[in-house]
Automatic annotation (TrEMBL), chain B:
Official protein name in the record: Branched-chain amino acid transport system ATP-binding protein
GO cellular component, one term: plasma membrane
Keyword Transport tagged: yes
Domain of life: Bacteria
InterPro entries xrefs: AAA+_ATPase, ABC_AA/LPS_Transport, ABC_transporter-like_ATP-bd, BCA_ABC_TP_C, P-loop_NTPase
Keyword Nucleotide-binding part of the UniProt annotation: yes
GO MF terms, alphabetically ordered: ATP binding; ATP hydrolysis activity
Pfam families registered for this protein in UniProt: ABC_tran, BCA_ABC_TP_C
ABC transporter domain span: 10-258
Coiled-coil blocks: none
Length: 674, 260
């Protein structure tokens, strides 16, 4: 009973934090139908700003800045107002130009905003945790309930703040004209426009309130756990999104309920399940995936929200017209488009250039970097099959990559070497067997994960795949018997061919190049056929595709399988190249990075993913020569995020906007070909 | 015993469709004969598109039976119905963005491709042959709908409205259907274009493909259709030969009473 009571109390505190953030997601979703992934980062900003305002001085970007040293309530208020302003600003800059854009565009933009905010926060406040200052209420003795449940005064403050904030919001929505307008827009945006509700003001208000709520949640969280950190918003953000979906995204009481349920389930799960604390993150995501499968609209939500607007990223151009950026992109476009759309000729030329570069490159260091370009290009190509061609935003792609890497590492190191004492040299051929084997395994896995997502569209699809990706990561961390857990697997042998070691950087580069040629060739063969046409048809208009006799569910699974195959296939080489893997290699951030590379180079093109990878990874290295970047390496990620946002606003089709690969088998195009 | 008249190609019996409280179609019956051009007319909002959506599996009717070519097609779903030989166009043109005209038309032929993944990867002679044959067929159809091959490599959505309609028809014909369902294919066209499309529809019939045509232009309907069904408020108002149906006072009232 004591134990249970204590868990319940912890669950309520956690639930309050999730509920507040979930309200942010749900409020904005209700008004603009946007899953603003950046709320996790606004949560983090709330924590940092409060902490900073409470301190006498803070080191910002290495400079000591005097701070007012406010007491908690004043600092909290200041942080909430500042974060609300940042939220409105983000909406104004990054989302408002995309109001009528295809739905994938603002979703990807919000992911980019997340990356920008997190990188900037890390630049400003550093990579270390910032300790949350003592507040006098926190020094009071705990309150004892029923003789056995200890609740700190601050826990009570957390719950009370959440309740007050929720009550205030309900009152605001019920009573104020802006609140009523907000509810009207949530019900029906077009109708709201027609009756003259100033939608932009309503949206700005939703962002302000949502960001304020996220900030409040963040500072309460920081207060409870005693620190602020630049990546602290990531998991709570995902959990809050889960809570919002759980309650039925768009419904405010639903968000509160979802947050509470999630907090309690997590607290009870970590208390009662064997090794529960380690698995508690998986609990939330299993709940999410299960719920989306059984009842996508959530507990209190409306079913029609599970729909994708017609049209894809590539079809509809954004509203924005004119401007020098447009001209600039237009220039870049011509060249890149020709590259990315690449017929076989250009692909061969590309391959030849890469080969010459690999043969002549004097520096091992740069050879390694070029190898990374090829690896990331291949992975991005795999993701491109599902996102770029089939139009399904998959945020769990890294799982397939992980399957490939772990399969080969477990076989070589944990099974054969450690358990049977077989030297890797004796079984060098296993690598070549593992490549297709891991591809097939990952493809099977992809179909397994893809099946429950078939009924989902748009945002929900992204959220569910994200849940899968996180579950896989938590499993990789905790199933120590299989994966060695967070320690990772070491001493994975470098590739070897008939006893000839291929471990040198140059050999590895050419190995990667051969694989890349295979990957691009295979993808091109499949895409330039009726299968690719079916994928693109699904991406552009799923119902019309069905009417043409395309069994869209089956073809989506084919896209998952193809994408999974590439992920698993490349994963095998990745493990042997790095010679060490751990769950950290397969984080959601990697998935986001791959997505950004595909968008950068051009969704739905063959060489675009490689162009994106080349631009990004070479820039990542070259920028390191700048003293500023040496001091603040994260600014590079912020820049990538900014580029992505600008790209989405001005050119949602990616840099190679007019690139368009032919979907017809080479040599069949001409009229008289038959 | 078989009925003396040949069984109709498509038969819809007592179809009911409710959207929430609204009964869009209430107990509708229709039979389309093989090789006929069957007109479905009625004022705006009468439920014509809804009927077409029911026939093609887009809407699952609240009640009723659908038999196509002797087979119950009620629960088959959209692609199942397409597989049985029903092809359609859309009242609001729905072409696939970024695809060229040729690619769009080829998607219509999806049902006739069967190469396996390995066959595609290795580019077997058969898979190439199938692709070439379908491309040739697509070019033929582009000529047939009056577009010609010069349009083949244009992005379909950048064409003029009339041309987009023709691409949609070619795409639908590419599946080699037994029946073609056209939802207001003449809307927004001038007189010349209208008569061209009407000729096209006759040629489709000449190939033995039945046509269900939703159309408002009574002149065209009268000259083109073998049989007419009139819908009003989701109910069948009249059914029969065009001359007789259009002379029916009830039908005239329905059209005079409401602007189209
Ligand atoms: N998906 C839908 N949901 C609700 N009502 C609909 C839907 N589709 C059509 N309706 C309604 O059904 C009626 C018939 O529409 P429709 O079949 O499009 O008519 P028509 O094609 O004859 O002009 C109209 O009142 C229309 O508003
Ligand atoms: Mg209609």
């Amino acid at each position: 009973m004591d134990y249970l009571g204590q868990l319940l109390a912890n669950g309520l505190v956690l639930g309050a934090v999730y509920a507040l953030t979930a309200v942010a997601f749900t409020l904005v979703y209700g008004v603009v139908r946007l899953v603003n992934f950046a709320f996790g980062e606004l949560f983090m900003l709330g924590a940092f700003l409060t902490t900073s305002l409470m301190l006498p001085e803070v080191r910002l970007a290495g400079v000591i800045v005097p701070m007012p040293g406010f007491p908690l309530p004043v600092a909290a208020l200041g942080a909430i107002v500042l974060t609300a302003l940042i939220g409105v600003l983000v909406d104004r800059i990054a989302y408002r130009p995309l109001r009528n854009a295809p739905r994938l565009a603002p979703l990807i933009t919000s992911i980019a905003v997340s990356v920008v905010l997190q990188s900037l926060a890390q630049t400003l406040w550093g990579a270390e945790e910032l300790r949350f200052p003592e507040f006098y209420l926190a020094t009071l003795p705990p309150v004892v309930l029923f003789d056995s449940i200890y609740l700190s005064v601050m826990d009570l403050v957390v719950m009370a703040s959440a309740v007050i904030a929720m009550a205030g919001l309900s009152l605001f929505i019920a009573r104020s004209s802006l609140g009523r307008a907000m509810r009207a827009s949530a019900e029906d945006q077009t109708a709201a426009l027609l009756v003259g509700i100033p939608v932009n003001r309503v949206v700005a208000a939703a962002f302000a309130i949502g960001s304020g709520f996220a900030a409040l949640a963040g500072l309460l969280y920081a207060q409870t756990y005693g620190f602020a950190h630049s990546s602290m918003g990531f998991l709570p953000g995902l959990k809050a999104l889960t809570a919002a979906v759980l309650g039925g995204i768009g419904s405010i009481p639903g968000a509160a309920l979802g947050g509470l349920i999630l907090g309690l389930v997590e607290a009870l799960g970590s208390g009662y399940l064997p090794n529960g604390t380690a698995w508690k993150d998986a609990i939330s995501f299993v709940l999410l995936v299960g719920l989306l499968y059984l009842r996508p609209q959530g507990l209190l939500g409306k079913p029609e929200l599970n729909s994708a607007g017609r049209g894809s990223l590539l079809g509809g151009a954004s509203e924005f017209a004119g401007g020098w950026l447009h001209t600039l992109f237009g220039r870049l476009d011509g060249g890149l488009a020709r590259l990315a759309a690449a017929g076989p000729g250009a692909a061969l030329a590309f391959l030849a250039i890469a080969a010459v570069l690999g043969a002549l490159m004097p520096s091992d260091y740069w050879l390694r970097i070029l190898t990374m370009v090829v690896i990331y290009g291949m992975l991005a190509s795999g993701l491109n099959v599902i996102v770029g061609f089939a139009g399904l935003l998959d945020l769990g792609f890294v799982a397939f990559w992980a399957v490939g890497s772990y399969l080969t590492s477990i076989l070589f190191v944990l099974v054969l070497k450690d358990s049977f004492g077989v030297a890797p040299d004796d079984i060098w051929w296993l690598l070549y067997l593992n490549l297709p084997l891991a591809g097939l395994l990952a493809a099977g896995f992809a179909v397994l994960l893809g099946t429950p997502t078939l009924r989902l569209r748009g945002d929900y699809l992204a959220i569910m795949t994200l849940g899968f990706g996180e579950i896989i990561r938590v499993v990789a961390i905790n199933w120590i018997g299989l994966t060695n857990g967070p320690m990772g697997i070491r001493d994975i042998p470098a590739p070897d061919l008939f006893g000839i070691p291929l471990g040198s950087p140059r050999a590895q580069f050419f190995f990667a190049l051969v694989l890349a040629a295979l990957v691009v060739f295979a993808i091109a063969r499949i895409v330039r056929s009726y299968v690719g046409r079916a994928w693109v048809a699904i991406r552009e208009d799923e119902e019309a595709a069905e009417a043409m006799g395309v069994p869209t569910a089956r073809y989506k699974l084919y896209a998952y399988a193809a994408s999974g195959f590439v992920g698993g296939f490349v994963g095998v080489f990745y493990a042997h190249y790095q010679q060490y893997i751990s769950p950290l290699n397969f984080s959601l951030f990697e998935n986001i990075l791959l997505l950004m590379l595909v968008v950068l180079g051009g969704l739905g093109t063959f060489l675009g993913p490689f162009i994106g990878a080349l631009i990004w990874i070479v820039f990542l290295q070259l920028a390191l020569d700048l003293p500023f970047v040496q001091a603040y390496p994260e600014t590079r990620f912020a820049l990538l995020g900014v580029v992505l946002i600008v790209l989405m606003v001005f050119r949602p089709q990616g840099l190679a906007a007019s690139a368009r690969v032919s979907l017809i088998m080479p040599g069949s195009r001409a009229k008289g070909a038959a | 015993m078989r009925a003396p008249t040949p069984a109709p190609l498509l038969e819809a019996r007592r179809i009911v469709v409710r959207f929430g409280g609204l009964e869009a179609v209430g107990g509708f019956d229709m039979a389309v004969a093989r090789g006929a051009i069957h007109g479905l007319i009625g004022p705006n909002g009468a439920g014509k598109t809804t009927v077409l959506n029911v026939l093609t599996g887009f809407i699952r009717p609240t009640a009723g039976e659908l038999v196509f070519d002797g087979e119950e097609i009620g629960g088959l779903g959209v692609h199942g119905v397409a597989r049985r030989g029903l092809a359609r166009t859309f009242q609001n043109i729905r072409l696939f963005g970024v695809m060229t005209v040729l690619e769009s038309v080829l998607v219509g032929g999806h049902l006739h491709f069967s190469a396996s993944a390995p066959a595609l990867l290795f580019g077997t002679r058969r898979s190439r042959g199938a692709e070439r044959a379908m491309v040739a067929r697509a070019h033929e159809l582009l000529d047939f709908v009056g577009l010609g091959s010069s349009f083949a490599d244009r992005v379909a959505t950048t064409l003029s409205y009339g041309h987009q309609r023709r691409v949609e028809i070619a795409r639908a014909l590419m599946s080699a259907p037994k029946m073609l369902l056209l939802d207001e294919p003449l809307a927004g066209m001038n007189a010349v274009e209208k008569s061209e499309i009407a000729d096209l529809v006759r040629q489709v019939r000449a190939q033995g493909i039945a046509v269900l045509l939703i159309e408002h232009d009574m002149q065209i309907v009268r000259s083109l259709c073998d049989h007419l069904t009139v819908l009003e408020y989701g109910k069948r108002l009249a059914d029969g030969l065009p001359e007789a149906v259009l002379a029916d006072p009830a039908v005239q009232a329905a059209y005079l009473g409401r602007a189209r």
